[in-house]
Design goal:
By secondary structure, this protein is α+β, with helices and mostly antiparallel strands. The chain is built from 3 helices and 9 strands; from the N terminus they run βαββαββββββα. Strand 2 and strand 3 form a beta hairpin. The two termini are 22 Å apart. 19% of the residues are buried.
């Protein structure tokens, strides 16, 4: 992650409370919050074109495509009073098949993505291909691609 850490939290609940009120998006990684950068024009075009193609391909199936504002939890979720291990991220695109499962009644943290698409940039490529990808594969049993 190329952006600066904002602060250390004592709980995941504090992150969710902060994020649900924030005007900008943040990712949570093992107790640290990172503000997300805005996207470049090329990144925006790539995501929009992919979303359009996926929407067309998935129409009439039990699957749907979600854009970049759906949080995904990948990592152990432990309610503690200390900084907790876990990753709340905003993939560029998410496909979910069947009934979506959510973290809580707010329905803003998806637990069962089928496909996650990250459009890489030079500043995030190492993290996206490394630690983030490992967490997705380890903690999301619903993930196929």
């Amino acid at each position: 992650m190329a952006l600066a850490q904002l602060k250390i939290l004592s709980t995941l609940e504090e992150y969710l409370a902060l994020e649900r009120e924030a005007e900008v998006r943040h990712e949570y990684l093992d107790g640290e919050i990172y503000e997300m950068a805005g996207e470049s024009l090329a990144h925006g075009y790539i995501c929009t074109n992919l979303a359009g193609q996926l929407y067309t391909q998935l129409r009439g199936t039990p699957c749907g495509v979600l854009a970049k504002d759906m949080k995904v939890l990948s990592g152990p979720y432990l309610k503690t009073r200390r900084p907790a291990k876990g990753l709340f991220s905003y993939p560029d695109l998410v496909v979910v098949c069947g009934e979506p499962q959510f973290h809580d009644e707010r329905r803003d943290v998806l637990l069962n993505p089928t496909v996650i698409i990250e459009v890489l940039s030079p500043s995030t490529e190492a993290f996206d291909r490394g630690a983030k990808f490992r967490r997705y594969r380890t903690h999301l049993p619903s993930l196929t691609d």
